[in-house]
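Duplicate of #3305? Posting structure anyway:
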């Protein structure tokens, strides 16, 4: 990528960081262009903040009906925005001449240890962000400053989740956490009830780490209404109500987010269905990496006297999911929680069965003491960073292949124009 009009380019070693790690960067100056830019000072800044940008507030009136009031856009200086940290380095001044035609200026910042992870949501009732950003500022007398802004993806250190990640990567052989829901349903308005059981089995681990294949099992068991033995023989080859799902696309499994924030003294909750999990509920869910579905043969279970009984039908599913969203966190004005939900729709009206459980998600990462470009004793000094990636005044989000190596954050997090940093 060519340098910007001011002759300044910024190299950054990594966009995914753990709190407590060091951010390494390097400014590259194209001297002929830079000399004519009028810039007198180059400053590097690393900062983080929690911001509640806009929300609707729920007010309870005398008849307990909720009334939604939309306040005006909040500014970063309100009580609903707070700074997490701010670090600044002066890298160059006009009274420090350079004789080279290409000048490289390395720098580094150390992230604080205790930080909430990067996060952004643009919801119906809430717009909020936990942002971490690296900025290079070239100041010019009597003119606007030249800015290069690089949003960073930061997660909290997590030694326990790291152990869980290593355990899962070795293959899960431990106990399972059952999440079970039983219900009685019937095909029509009248008639006898049948019974169904939906069970989700997760590894008995908490928290669950990011970027790790996590196995899960689903067991769906149905029992028909009681019928006579002679009737059962006529229906032994037929599907009988309630029939459990036969395909992965017939079951929904997703991760739900609960965002709690405080604005103007009011507590506000934003809930959304964040992402599907495990290939369930999708049309194209077959293949080697897709869910494994086993439909067991029907089993006749006679009553004690043998004259009546019920048909038992069962479907078993095994698959994996990988978590890539912002880990669970709690801040004084903003917090994030997750809920896993599995849903099965049976034939008939209103015959939906859901089973849910709260889950804690963590980074599964710990700070690395040495990153690429850190000089070791006794070795020849080299460039502090690899030649890529390179940033100038880019206004668009980073390429998709670059975002895949970091948290699943919306494009608005990476949009440079959205960051209202101090450009003075």
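Output from current build:
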């Amino acid at each position: 990528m060519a340098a910007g009009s001011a002759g300044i380019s910024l190299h950054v070693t990594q966009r995914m960081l753990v709190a407590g790690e060091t951010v390494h960067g390097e400014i590259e100056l194209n001297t002929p262009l830079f000399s004519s830019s009028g810039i007198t000072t180059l400053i590097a800044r690393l900062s983080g903040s929690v911001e509640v940008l806009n929300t609707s507030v729920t007010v309870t009136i005398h008849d307990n009906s909720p009334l939604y009031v939309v306040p005006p856009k909040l500014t970063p200086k309100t009580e609903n925005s707070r700074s997490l940290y701010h670090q600044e380095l002066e890298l160059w001044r006009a009274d420090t001449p350079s004789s080279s035609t290409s000048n490289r200026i390395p720098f580094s910042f150390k992230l604080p240890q205790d930080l909430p992870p990067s996060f952004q949501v643009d919801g119906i009732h809430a717009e909020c962000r936990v942002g971490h950003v690296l900025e290079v500022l070239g100041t010019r007398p009597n003119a606007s400053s030249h800015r290069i802004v690089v949003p960073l993806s930061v997660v909290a250190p997590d030694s326990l989740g790291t152990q869980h990640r290593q355990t899962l990567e070795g293959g899960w052989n431990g106990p399972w956490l059952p999440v079970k829901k039983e219900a009685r349903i019937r095909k029509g308005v009248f008639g006898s009830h049948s019974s169904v059981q939906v069970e989700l089995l997760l590894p008995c681990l908490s928290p669950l780490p990011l970027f790790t294949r996590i196995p899960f099992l689903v067991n769906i068991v149905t029992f028909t209404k009681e019928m006579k033995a002679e009737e059962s023989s006529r229906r032994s080859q037929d599907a009988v109500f309630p029939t459990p799902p036969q395909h992965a696309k017939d079951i929904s499994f997703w991760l739900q987010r609960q965002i709690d924030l405080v604005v103007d003294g009011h507590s506000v909750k934003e809930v959304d269905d964040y992402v599907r999990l495990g290939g369930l509920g999708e049309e194209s869910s077959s293949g080697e990496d897709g869910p494994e579905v086993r439909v067991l043969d029907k089993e006749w279970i006679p009553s004690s006297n043998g004259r009546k009984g019920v048909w038992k039908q069962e479907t078993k599913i095994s698959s994996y999911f990988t978590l890539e969203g912002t880990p669970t966190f709690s801040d004084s004005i903003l917090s994030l929680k997750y809920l896993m939900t599995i849903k099965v729709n049976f034939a008939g009206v209103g015959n939906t069965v859901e089973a849910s459980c709260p889950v804690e998600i963590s980074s599964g990462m710990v700070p690395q003491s040495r990153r690429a470009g850190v000089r070791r004793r006794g070795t020849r000094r080299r460039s502090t960073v690899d030649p890529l990636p390179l940033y100038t005044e880019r206004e668009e989000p980073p390429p998709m292949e670059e975002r895949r190596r970091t948290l699943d954050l919306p494009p608005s997090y990476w949009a440079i124009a959205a960051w209202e940093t101090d450009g003075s």
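Confirmed duplicate; merging threads. Residues 159-362 form a domain with the Immunoglobulin-like fold (CATH 2.60.40.640). The CA atoms of residues 374 and 384 lie 6 Å apart.
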